[in-house]
Write a structure and sequence with these properties.
By secondary structure, the chain is mainly alpha-helical. It contains ten helices and three strands.
């Protein structure tokens, strides 16, 4: 199977088979536009992806290489109902900084299933938490003044009018 070389932003070179690299729509399009000869030492620079993240992406891509590409794109479009597989959940267990870098790289390389799974992981970190818990999880400083916080509390307590009361029972 033909091999290509991917160069990370910090200069490290990774060799991988073309089918694994094609998990990235960006690389797949590049290879279609500029066909690779079997004996070629094709080097694709990836200036927005460092070696740590590229290594993780290649691990993920090798695991998902056999996935049907068309089916994956359809699944990625249905991200509302998407479930993270146990393998992906384990793979995406990493520190927040690395996870966010992985999200940026998956977006840059156009790998929708990895992007969706990583974003779902972040969404699960937020789901069901209070604003203060979210701030603690993501190390966000509270920039609301006490009066702004009181206003937020009052707005949260005001019940929303039900459509039936606004428009009557039609």
């Amino acid at each position: 199977m033909p091999v290509i070389k991917l160069q990370s932003s910090d200069g490290e070179i990774f060799e991988t088979d073309i089918e694994t690299a094609k998990c990235s729509s960006t690389i797949k399009t590049l290879l279609e536009d500029c066909p690779v000869e079997a004996e070629s030492d094709t080097l694709i620079p990836l200036p927005n992806v460092n070696s740590t993240i590229l290594k993780k992406i290649l691990i993920w891509a090798k695991h998902h290489r056999e996935d049907d590409a068309e089916e994956n794109e359809e699944e990625a479009d249905k991200s509302v109902a998407m479930q993270i597989t146990p393998w992906d959940a384990e793979f995406l267990t990493m520190d927040q900084g690395t996870l966010f870098e992985l999200i940026l790289a998956a977006n840059y390389l156009d790998i929708p299933n990895l992007l969706n799974a990583a974003c779902m992981t972040v969404a699960n970190m937020i789901k069901g938490r209070t604003a203060e818990e979210i701030r603690q999880t993501f190390h966000i400083t509270n920039d609301f003044s006490p009066s702004e916080e009181d206003l937020q509390t009052v707005e949260a307590e005001v019940p929303q009018e039900d459509e039936a009361t606004v428009y009557g029972d039609i």
